[in-house]
Every structure is written in C-alpha cells, then in structure tokens.
C-alpha cells in the first residue's frame, strides 16, 4: 500500500492513494490553514469508521443477514499536549435491515474491532475505543 502527499501552499496538502484517489487536507486558520480541506486527524477517524463499517457490512452479508444500511458515527477526545493523540474514541453503529439478528450485529462489530479492522487495532493500542450499537428495522 502506498500514498503520496504533496504540499500545495500554506497548510494545504493533497494526499493521493496508491489506488489513484485524492483528498485535499488543510488546517484551521489559527494554525495557518485556509480551511480548504479535511484535517489529517479527522481522516484518521474517517478511516477508522470506514474500515469498521466495511467489515461489519461484509460480515453480516456473509452471514446472510438482510442488512440495508450501516452508519458509523465517530467521536474522539485528544490529549491536551503534543503529541495530541486520540485518548478515547466512541463509535456509534446504526445498522439497518429487515429482521436483523442483534446478536449477529454485535458479533460483527466485535470481530471488526478485535480481529479485522487494522485501524481499530492500531488506534486501540493507545486509545480506549467503545462501541454503541443501534439496530433499526428497515421500512
């Protein structure tokens, strides 16, 4: 896996993935940025949520659970001093489907956290990660 980050100007950078996708990153005005893109630390949270959501949907589909939607809301606290690492991460999973088995949804989230999601395992080595699960019946 590869990535390339190119400085544009000020605190603006473009990150390009090895798979050919790009994202603009920038800082807040108080740190010299112009607020033109996502913050790098926000990208870590998005990567964590995306990695886990990917796992949860795949696990449920493999288990033939009728999942129709999955949303992960991520909220994190950071250390007060540099390096301002994440110290606590709260993940809220909202999984929708027709007749989903709650126990299977809980197991999918647990498997993602402990076995499959590389981002969760790496960030979990330094931050407390908690999960809240809501199962919604599809209309």
UniProtKB/TrEMBL annotation:
Q: Which Pfam families match?
A: OsmC
PANTHER family, sorted: PROTEIN YHFA (PTHR34352:SF1)
Q: What is the name of the protein in this document?
A: Redox protein
